Amino acid sequence: MTRLFRGIFIVWTVLRFGLDELVLSSFQRPWIRLLTRIVSVGRNLKAPRGERLREALESLGPIFVKFGQVMSTRRDLLPPDIADELARLQDRVPPFDSAIAVAIIEKAFGRPLDRIFASFEQTPVASASIAQVHFATLPNGREVAVKVLRPNMLPAIEKDLALMHMMAGWVEGASADGKRLKPREVVAEFDKYLHDELDLLREAANAAQLRRNMQNLDLVMIPEMVWDFCMPDVMVMERMKGVPISQAQRLRDAGVDMKKLARDGVTIFFTQVFRDGFFHADMHPGNIQVSLAPETFGRYISLDFGIVGTLTEVDKEYLAQNFSAFFQRDYKRVAELHLESGWVPPETRVDELEAAIRACCEPYFDRPLREISLGLVLMRLFQTSRRFHVEIQPQLVLLQKTLLNIEGLGRELDPDLDLWSTAKPFLEKWMLEQVGPEKLMAQLKAEAPAYAKLLPGLPRLLSQYLKSPPGINRRELEELLHEQKRTNKLLQGLIYGGLGFLLGLIAMQILLRVRLF
Question: Which among 283, 331, 335, 445 could bridge 358 via Cys, Cβ 3.0 to 4.6 Å?
């Protein structure tokens, strides 16, 4: 019954804000334009369409707000008026009453506000779909930002997620394409990350991990968590001072190198994905600032860590090989990787899949971002994937979303940015590191405990064999001989295998440097 009422509310909101008119008016057939006039009778649709769309998403709740946030970065796919309005969802969602925020803080810490902070700004500095942020000062004088979870968030999200799960079931059962897209698994993944975002203590842990990972990169700043003041519904962190990345003209006036800023954003993304397998997965402009302080001038400031993505070593290696083959325009290798991973049926012909991928991607090489759209490329790849029954991988949904955000930011900062050539050197270096001496030493170090347990027992087994009495029975002799053979093979394997692997590694290094890229 709850789902039914929520579905009715969504339909009512669509009609109330005239979103149906936005869709119908885009068609050219006369009878559809007539239908547009009929459904618009009696409604006040004088407000601009972008404003109506934004207000409708705000009325529908946090999940729909997040959808608008993602779409706001795709100015190449949206009319300017709609993109401008959706951009307001990034950090200007209507705040909730500050008195409620104070009550949540006092309940979390069990004492009055004036005994927690030396000062507290009642007016929030930012308000988003899940929480809002206030500036404050700790008793020791340290300036901090206080993030407070919106009240009654869990019930609201549960309603929307229940409806999404139901709709996913309908989509999956409606057609073969629907089943191939794994909508239920995708919604389940979205469900998980939304629930994670409602726990600010988990977000604080995410921020701490990203801060450790990025501390030596000198390209991005991440606030330090004040752990004594972090709770599931309240989080206190170092106050960061920067200019929102959406204020591009202000950054240019301050002397920020926008082309370098765009390249640094790509480097940060690929570092988090391929080096760490732990990446910020909510990188819309409302969560990114740029420092203008002299000592950190031009560095990114990353905020809001409720959603992070993780990749296994297998995921990272597979993606890196795909990117590497793609940058070399080795479409046959891309097709082979799809087969090896099981993403396409085993009976798929490699040459046919190779030709289809080439037709999708080749027209977009060597062009700046202003002349291409990754969204359109992905759309063509999606159409191709239907033909070859490619299965969508739910664990990569966040990565795909973040890549679209990165493209949107890059387009705003530097329309001439070549995403492919910017990423290629990083991936070359990463691939070399995966087969270089440093990787070998790391693997040997990881296996050292197992070798340490095995090697001390080898002399004892050999000594027992040499000292065995002449009258030993046949069974014991066979066991000793077996142990000896096993020991000899193990020692030979360790010696020759190590030497062979080292020689092969050197040869691989030479080939990689000379021919691979």
Answer: 331
Q: By three-state DSSP, how is residue 301 classified?
A: strand
Within 151-301, residue ranges assigned H as helices are: 153-174, 176-180, 183-197, 200-214, 248-253, 258-270
Q: Report the alpha-carbon distance of residue 302 to residue 422 in Å, rounded.
A: 21
Coil vs helix vs strand at 361: helix
> Is 214 within 8 Å of 118 (Cβ atoms)?
no
User: CA-CA distance, 121 to 136, in Å (whole number)?
Assistant: 6
- pLDDT tens track for 81-96: 887 788 777 656 678 8
- Tokens, residue 232: 């599931």
What is the spatial distance between Cα 410 and Cα 499, in angstroms, rounded to a whole number?
46
Tokens 């929480």 locate to 131
Amino acid at 88: R
Find out whether 482 and 474 touch, Cβ atoms under 8 Å: no
CB 252 within 8 A of CB 258: yes
| End-to-end CA, the chain | 59
Which long-range contacts link 51-57 to residues 24+ away (Cβ below 8 Å)? 51/85, 52/17, 52/18, 52/19, 52/22, 53/17, 53/19, 53/22, 53/82, 53/85, 53/86, 54/85, 54/86, 54/88, 54/89, 55/17, 56/13, 56/14, 56/16, 56/17, 56/19, 57/86, 57/89
Residue with tokens 């109506």: 52
List pLDDT tens digits, range 141-170.
999 999 999 888 877 777 777 777 777 777
Q: Which residues are catalytic?
A: 282
The pTM is what?
Answer: 0.69
Hey, is 512 helix, strand or coil? helix
Task: Report, as ranges of residue numbers, the positions in the chain whose pLDDT lies below 70.
Answer: 1-4, 20-45, 67, 69-78, 90-93, 171, 173-182, 186, 189-190, 193, 343, 365-386, 390-398, 400-401, 420, 434-440, 442-444, 447-448, 450-517
Encode 332-358: b = buried (16+ Cβ within 10 Å), e = exposed. bbbbbbbbeeebbeeebebeebbebbe
